[in-house]
């Protein structure tokens, strides 16, 4: 923690929380056991981000493709989502965390939507970290729904990158500077496709239920050691400083 430069923090960190099922398998348990044990990692990462001054943390909690998993696992995940959101409100309030959500929330079970809206309402005045849950989300869905809305009221000549930004589900949220994916997989799995055009990627073999504060700090330190050029040369970056 003491090595982290507080003047060079990513404003927005996104996380693909992968490896719950494999973690459970190593314990000889069902996949849902891994999902239940992942809550501690979510809590610790959220609290650490709030503590060090990260402004936005987006967690890929449930993708549109996850509906294709076995029905019993999906049902268990939805039940876990309902209970977790309800149980974590106090933690969010204690850490001054504001809760938001992106994705096609209308497709979630009614009780999940209700608990989510209640948590968002209770935390809306919090001024610290904004925790964004990506639920029933995919990057292609996000771009597609934005395009559908844009063509209703805008001509081709009006379409710009800035206009598209306004119609994405992340409107008002800065693009992530750092993406962390756990479990050793090296892909972005249809997550924030538009928003991650210049995101720094960090992959770790650690399975998500084992991910802790020290692993987050390692990812941030790796981010701080990189030179972000956005298409420019190193010489140009040095001159601008």
Topology:
Blueprint: E1 12-16, H1 20-26, H2 31-37, H3 39-52, E2 56-63, H4 71-87, H5 89-94, E3 98-102, H6 110-123, E4 130-137, H7 139-153, H8 161-167, E5 178-181, E6 200-203, H9 213-224, H10 234-240
Parallel strand pairs: 1-2, 1-5, 2-4, 3-4, 5-6
Overview of this protein structure:
By secondary structure, this protein is an alpha/beta fold. It has a single domain, classed as Decaprenyl diphosphate synthase-like (Undecaprenyl pyrophosphate synthetase), CATH 3.40.1180.10. 44% of the residues lie in helices and 14% in strands. It has helices at 20-26, 31-37, 39-52, 71-87, 89-94, 110-123, 139-153, 161-167, 213-224, 234-240, and strands at residues 12-16, 56-63, 98-102, 130-137, 178-181, 200-203. Strands 3-4-2-1-5-6 form a six-stranded parallel beta sheet, sandwiched between helices. Helix 6 links the parallel strand 3 (98-102) and strand 4. Helix 4 packs parallel to helix 6 (110-123) and helix 7 (139-153) crosses helix 8 (161-167). The protein is globular and about 55 Å long. The model has no long low-confidence stretch (mean pLDDT 94).
